[in-house]
Design brief:
The protein is α/β, with parallel strands linked by helices. 59% of the residues lie in helices and 7% in strands. The protein has 15 helices and six strands. A hairpin with a 3-residue loop joins strand 2 and strand 3. Helix 1 crosses helix 2, helix 6 runs antiparallel to helix 7 and helix 10 packs across helix 12. The longest helix has 46 residues. The relative contact order is 0.07.
């Protein structure tokens, strides 16, 4: 039975000559085309058209089998117009990706990768993943792996996954390994965010401590600070009120000397951390800053490396926080400190 010739809309703005190439599909149809246009878009088709043939005939025939006839029609139409409709992508996206890879049409390949990425579901992800591996589409492959990792329970119940388990155990192993690594990365990322959040809080506490001991706020401030009769709660730092309560407790606690007060130990640690991040020893008004720094110069304690590491991370968090702020707000947060160190350099108002 002779192949049935179908006419297609090339969607070309140019006047086209008579077709000199016929593309035969697996459903017994043939699509007329033009050798010059096919060769200019696809190097594979160009090689096929230019290669010598044993039996010369009046027409050139290109066989494209294994995909639906309508998918081949959409493929040929793209070669002429560089356009692919959403409906064609919905129906033949995977077929078009395979054709674009085999015939080396990069523009169509990128269009298919984007379209299939947008259409990924738990039902089709296994099939798309296998095709992405065959068609050398790493971006699409990674998106499939991430969807698998995030929705593995749902994917595990699909027919595609069951087929893969039976026929491709190596790919199954790769997927399970990726899921395990993905979970490990998520845990590390979560732990890193929590640590960065803690360092950011400590950085804010250091700034708040300087603010209280240098400028004074609400209930506590240096002796030379002007006392305002009406003081509103501090709006600059979320930790300001709590830190003021801690300082008041530290200044009046009777158990501090014996070392039995947990709140005083916490305040002492904040003072010590400040001394590691402070670069204005002679002018700093935060209590014990100079004493701690002199002590560090005279003798080295076993826990000094840990404190120095913590100070570096807190300073780094401060830099990252300041970089995330607008320039105007960064300028507003700059302070000028004055001399008067020691625990008695501030008062309870």
């Amino acid at each position: 039975m002779a192949p049935q010739t179908i006419s297609i809309d090339y969607q070309s703005t140019r006047a086209l000559p008579e077709p000199d190439v016929f593309i035969h599909t697996s459903h017994g149809t043939r699509i007329p085309a033009h050798a010059g246009i096919l060769a200019s878009v696809s190097p594979v088709l160009e090689n096929f058209i230019d290669r010598p043939r044993k039996h010369r005939s009046f027409e050139t025939i290109i066989q494209i089998h294994g995909v639906p006839c309508d998918a081949v029609t959409a493929f040929v139409r793209f070669l002429y117009s560089s356009r692919c409709t959403e409906e064609e992508m919905d129906k033949y996206g995977m077929h078009l990706l395979a054709l674009s890879h085999v015939y080396m049409v990069p523009q169509l390949k990128q269009r298919c990768i984007k379209g299939l990425t947008q259409r990924l579901t738990t039902d089709n992800v296994v099939d798309v993943l296998q095709l992405a591996r065959l068609c050398d589409a790493p971006d699409l492959h990674l998106r499939c792996m991430k969807l698998l990792a995030n929705n593995f329970k749902a994917v595990e119940a699909t027919e595609g996954w069951k087929f893969l388990v039976k026929h491709d155990p190596w790919l199954e192993l790769d997927i399970l390994r990726f899921i395990d690594e993905h979970e490990t990365r998520k845990k590390k990322s979560r732990r890193h965010r929590e640590e960065q959040g803690l360092y950011a809080q400590l950085s804010e506490a250091m700034e708040c401590l300087e603010h209280i001991c240098t400028e004074g706020c609400t209930n506590i401030g240096p002796y030379d600070a002007e006392v305002k009769r009406e003081r509103r709660p501090c709006g600059r730092f979320a930790t300001c009120q709590g830190l003021q309560v801690l300082i008041r407790h530290f200044a009046t606690c009777q158990r501090r000397v014996s070392g039995g007060c947990l709140q005083c130990k916490r305040m002492w640690q904040l003072f010590r951390l400040h001394s590691y991040v402070c670069h204005q020893t002679d002018s700093c008004k935060v209590p014990f800053c100079r004493q701690f720094q002199l002590s560090m110069q005279q003798k080295t304690r076993k826990d000094d490396p840990r404190w120095k590491l913590l100070a570096r991370k807190v300073a780094s968090a401060k830099v990252m926080s300041s970089l995330s702020l607008p320039k105007r707000k960064r300028d507003e947060e700059m302070r000028v400190t004055i001399n008067n160190p020691g625990i008695r350099s501030y008062k309870l108002l």
